[in-house]
Amino acid sequence: MELTAVLTHAEEGGFIALNPETGTTTQGETVEEAVANLKEATALYLAEFPLASRGHPVITMFTLPEAAHA
């Protein structure tokens, strides 16, 4: 099963990893650790709550005007 991982920098250091298909979220000191933790958390989630295949989410980016986040 191929799933999506979205990684962002954590304020305290390291990375936060999110799987948008299931909502599982983990963290790790490195990208590799965060993804490994996400795989484990997502597998445990899916063991309890099987996921009907709906394809991949659409991931895009958008920009806000500078005044919107100042």
Number of DSSP-assigned strands: 3
CATH topology: Double Stranded RNA Binding Domain
Count up the domains. Answer: 1
In angstroms, what is the radius of gyration?
Answer: 14 Å
What features would you describe in this structure?
The structure is a single chain. The protein has 70 residues and is of the alpha+beta class. It has one helix at residues 31-48, and strands at 6-9, 15-19, 24-28. The chain has one domain (6-69): Double Stranded RNA Binding Domain (2-Layer Sandwich). The protein has 1 helix and 3 strands, in the order βββα. A hairpin with a 4-residue loop joins strand 2 (15-19) and strand 3.
Salient structural properties:
26% helix, alpha+beta, 70 residues, Double Stranded RNA Binding Domain, three-stranded antiparallel beta sheet
Quick overview of this protein structure:
With 70 residues, the protein is of the alpha+beta class. The chain has one helix at residues 31-48; strands spanning 6-9, 15-19, 24-28.
